[in-house]
Write a structure and sequence with these properties.
The two termini are 33 Å apart. The chain has helices at residues 14-32, 41-49, 53-58, 72-83, 100-109, 125-132, 153-166, 178-183, 258-273, 278-285, 313-321, 367-376, 387-394, 405-415; strands at 62-67, 90-92, 115-119, 136-139, 170-174, 190-194, 213-216, 219-222, 234-237, 240-242, 248-250, 297-300, 303-309, 330-333, 360-363, 382-383, 398-403. The chain folds into three domains: 12-51; 52-286, UDP-N-acetylmuramoyl-L-alanine:D-glutamate ligase; 297-415, Protein-Tyrosine Phosphatase, Chain A, CATH 3.90.190. A nine-stranded mixed beta sheet has the order 2-3-1-4-5-6-9-10-11, sandwiched between helices. A six-stranded mixed beta sheet has the order 12-13-17-14-15-16, sandwiched between helices. Strands 7-8 form a two-stranded antiparallel ribbon. With 419 residues, the protein is α/β, with parallel strands linked by helices. It has 14 helices and 17 strands. Strand 4, helix 7 and strand 5 (170-174) form a beta-alpha-beta unit.
């Protein structure tokens, strides 16, 4: 990690300055045209003009990379809030544009920021680590997601392991996920966090030898090789965080659900690397109320909607857990566009039986696939055209909305982007 300041625009090579200027203009044009927040197009154009632009923009900055299947955007937001207490500008791709173009756009928008917290797609983490020379890499979890696009998760874990074995960075890793623990196992400097793992269906086997993993509460070990859960420094214990000194504090987050408690404990461990104490880091985390539209409450035709994002079986497990009790109706929306993954067979890994006995509405481009799945779980439902149709039919003052990625973005665009 370089101790120098990040290069100002005037300190970049001429072609890199041109790339950031043109890319920034494209991003602004995209926002003005209402075609998005401009967090991708500017980076795409910048990289076409200067392919090594990410490395140039990353120089001199203290960078945190955040990766995993679920929780990246929220954890990135929580870490950014904690580091913001240091009084320095923190660059971040706050809206989840997590491939190379999104990272470029985030750094280009904040040329004077000495720190950056960047969400990274799990497939691209090794390449982004090499390009940015990040100070900290944060590993949350690994489970099946977009199998038609991303690699099989054991292959991803092997790529992470190889990249981290030779990298000069601090790794903050979830010790409760066996795949994550194995991936970080050869890193030079690891802080282990007991952040929990509720979804076990992708980690029954040992990533080291392939044998069956044995579990005892939160602990796990392989019965055939030495692979086992590493000793931890930070612990999520119910609604409290236990720090490395043994101190216990209530989390008291506004963000709902156990998954966000897990994200917050990881964020506290990252903040500690930068000298941010638990007290100010927690105070900052408690101010986070929504993340890129997730958990946002919006009014639509006299009905208060709460928007929840769920992209894969592990994410749906968490979303279903935080639904308000019946009889509040629920709308489920599923698309299968490129950002979602074309394959919807993962719907059969989600247990929808808990929706029985409450009004359920089904929408999205793949509503028929979802309807068949609900029918198999004996969940009564009605197919609707969109969220407005659901609101009209529900006749309810409140509704929960769970949608996968592009369906979520379509609903946000319809109801107004509020964060």
């Amino acid at each position: 990690m370089s101790a120098s300041s990040p290069p100002s625009r005037s300190g970049l090579p001429l072609r890199a300055r041109l790339a950031t200027t043109v890319g920034g203009a494209a991003g602004r044009a995209s926002r003005l045209a209402g075609r998005g927040d401009g967090s991708v197009i500017g980076g795409v154009i910048g990289l076409r003009l200067k392919p090594d632009l990410l490395s140039l923009l990353a120089r001199g900055r203290q960078i945190v990379l955040v990766t995993g299947t679920n929780g990246k955007t929220t954890t990135t937001r929580l870490i950014s809030a904690a580091l913001g207490t240091l009084g320095q500008q923190v660059a971040s791709n706050a809206f989840g544009a997590n491939m190379e173009a999104g990272l470029v756009a985030a750094l280009a928008r904040a040329p004077d920021a000495t720190m950056a917290v960047l969400e990274v797609d799990e497939k691209y983490m090794p390449a982004m680590l090499e390009a940015t020379q990040a100070r900290v890499v944060t590993l949350l979890n690994l489970s099946r997601d977009q199998m038609d696009r991303a690699a099989e998760i054991w292959l991803l874990a092997r790529r992470w392991r190889a990249a981290l074995a030779t990298a000069d960075c601090r790794v903050i890793a979830n010790a409760d996920d066996p795949l994550v623990a194995w991936a970080a196992g050869q890193a030079r400097n690891v802080t282990w966090v007991a952040a929990g793992q509720r979804w076990h269906d992708d980690s029954w086997c040992c990533p080291n030898c392939g044998s069956h993993l044995r579990r005892d509460g939160g602990d796990w070990h392989c019965g055939e090789c030495p692979n086992r859960r590493p000793p931890v420094s930070w612990v999520l214990a119910g609604d409290e965080v236990i720090d490395p000194a043994g101190g216990s504090r209530p989390l008291d987050l506004v963000l709902p659900g156990r998954a966000n408690k897990s994200n917050a404990v990881v964020a506290l461990a990252v903040a500690d690397v930068f000298g941010v104490g638990v007290t100010p880091a927690l105070a900052a985390a408690r101010q986070v109320r929504s993340v890129a539209g997730r958990y946002t409450h919006v009014q639509r035709r006299g009905c208060e909607l709460r928007l929840l994002l769920a992209k894969n079986p592990a994410g749906w497990l968490e979303a279903l857990d935080i639904l308000v009790p019946a009889p509040v109706p629920v709308m489920l929306a599923v698309n299968a566009q490129v950002p979602d993954g074309r394959d919807t067979s993962w719907l059969w890994d989600v247990d929808y039986r808990r929706l029985r006995g409450r009004p359920v509405f089904v929408a999205g481009e793949r509503r028929t696939d979802l309807a068949v799945r609900l029918e198999a779980d004996e969940v009564a439902f009605r197919v609707v055209a969109d969220v407005d149709d659901a609101v009209t039919q529900a006749h309810s003052p409140a509704m929960e909305v769970i949608a996968n990625y592009t369906a979520f973005q379509q609903i946000r665009a319809l109801t107004g982007r509020t964060d």
